[in-house]
From TrEMBL:
Lineage, opening ranks: Bacteria, Pseudomonadati, Pseudomonadota, Alphaproteobacteria, Rhodobacterales
Protein's recorded name: Bacteriophage phiJL001 Gp84 C-terminal domain-containing protein
Annotated Pfam families: Phage_BR0599, Phage_phiJL001_Gp84_N
Cited NCBIfam families: phg_TIGR02218
Sequence ranges assigned to domain Bacteriophage phiJL001 Gp84 C-terminal in this UniProt record: 194-276
Amino acid sequence: MTFNSALSAHLATGATTTCHCWAITRKDGTTLGFTDHDGPLAFDGIAFRADSGLSASALQQGTGLSVDNSDAIGALSDSAISEADVEAGRYDEAEVTAWMVNWSAPNERQVVFRGTIGEITRSGGAFRAELRGLAEILNRPQGRIYQKTCSAVLGNAACGLDLDQAAFRAETTATDIAESRVLTFATLSGYDDGWFTRGRLEVLDGPAVGLSAPIKRDWAEGALRCLELWSPLRADPGLGAMFRLDAGCDKRFQSCREKFGNGLNFQGFPDIPGEDWLMVPPSRSGSASGGSRR
C-alpha cells in the first residue's frame, strides 16, 4: 500500500491527530458517512458523523490472496442506522470504504479498507456487521457450467432480453397483502396463469421501496390474481404501494424460445446427455463387433 505522502510525513512526527472514517453505500444508492473522531468531518462530498456510535475492530489484512475481514460495531438509532433498515436488508452487501484521516487536515488521508458488508447480527439495540474485503470475491465459483438449463439471469447481458416490455413486466398495486408474502392483485388480466412463477417482485414506493423477492407461485382465484413469495418481504410495503412484477423463467430451452422468443441467446446445452445416459444397458443384438446395428 502506498500511503499519502502528506499523511506519511504527519505519522512520522510521532504526535498524530488521526482517526478513521467509513463510508457505507447501500444498493439503493444511499451513502452514509461515520467517523470515530469526536467531531464531524467532510470530504469527497460525504459528511462523516461523529455521533453515530459506529466503530470498527482492527483490520486483518494480508499481502496474499487471503480474505481480509473486520467487524463494524454500532448502536441502532433512527438518526443513523435504524433497526428497521437493518431488518429490511438495506445494508446487505453494501459497499464499505474506510480511511485513516488526519482530522486536523482531512486532505491527508489514506484508504485502508475497501469491501462489502457480510453477515449482520443484532442484539440489545446494537448491531455487529462483518466487513468482507475485496478478496472475498475469489471464493465465488467462476466460469460456465455445462448443463441442460440456461445459466443466464433473465434480462442480464448474457440473456440479452429486454424486460422493459409489457409482455414481460407489469406494474400494479395489490388489493390484499398477507404476512408480506402472499399478495392479491385485481389488474393482471392478459397474463396466463403461472406467468410470473419463478419471476421477481420489486417494491417501487412506500416504506419497503427498493426491496424485492423471488416469486414462488402465481395463480388465479376467480377475477383476482395471487402471488406467493419464497420468503416474506423484510418490511411491510403497505396497501397502496406500487409493485413491479417480472415474468418468470424456468431456464428451459422450450420456454426461452416460445415464451420469450429468445432462443438464439439460450445459455444452456439442451442436447447434452443426462446422467442416466451412462446407465444405458448394452445392446441385446448379440453382436459384439462394435459396429452399428442394421
